[in-house]
């Protein structure tokens, strides 16, 4: 167990002003979805760090510290691989209809919403290869965010078709209070080539970073699975491997873990980029291997700017917390995943393979 204090509700939206919404499609060949993170009125500062070998993104160049745009209106995380980028267009259209965006005229709708996005690969997991998010997914996810109180754990939104190694992945979140006054949170869609499982103990690799209250109702630290459960957990949790190109039955290994770390501390674009960079340490603590040629791992860092930071030591703690909440969010995603089966395959949930841990929660 790590030491520290949970955010108010241990959710991504503990950073005040940020809203989250989803649109999820399951059944009839579908197993995918879209998640939208809405900025407070007036926008938010953002940075990005893309490290995977096969990313799919939109408007990330605008987040470069030397680019002119200082604030963004939303971020979209979505399934559907490159096709899923259409959901970001839908989110931008919906925001423009609401008059939210960079003003370019006198009329309320003469705005251009700035909506960076990242995609993960879940094509065909529901049974139909082209059952992918379109513009309507983005519009509906924005509306869901505006309603408030959307869930942040499990097979929802961008995490619907997510798979980690051979296990069911999904969406996970976590938050932490830093220096008694700043909140840092993470929202991660876990869809990795690498394994979230220790190959010796069968324990989730990020377990040691959990805080009391993470993944357990009673504040009890998660131990290793029972000895009889370990072989199955380790087998299903083994990293996916490339197969020979000559194999006509081979399925392409394409994954990608994507997410956002947020804080209410006032950070510049440079520091938001640094926060996104440090959050990748959290991925490396919980997924092995990470940043492979078959992943498109991309992390955004966002700041609402509610609280001024004047102490370099406090800044250091905020940036370090970005890695910690990322690890915890990945681990909580795996603890929330449940076995999913479609015509395309079966992906067991971690706790379904280790029911002894469920009893200890």
Automatic annotation (TrEMBL):
Source taxon at top rank: Bacteria
Pfam families referenced in this protein's UniProt entry, alphabetically: Peptidase_S58
GO molecular-function terms, A-Z: aminopeptidase activity
Residue intervals passing through the bilayer: none
Name of protein: P1 family peptidase
Family under the similarity heading: Belongs to the peptidase S58 family.
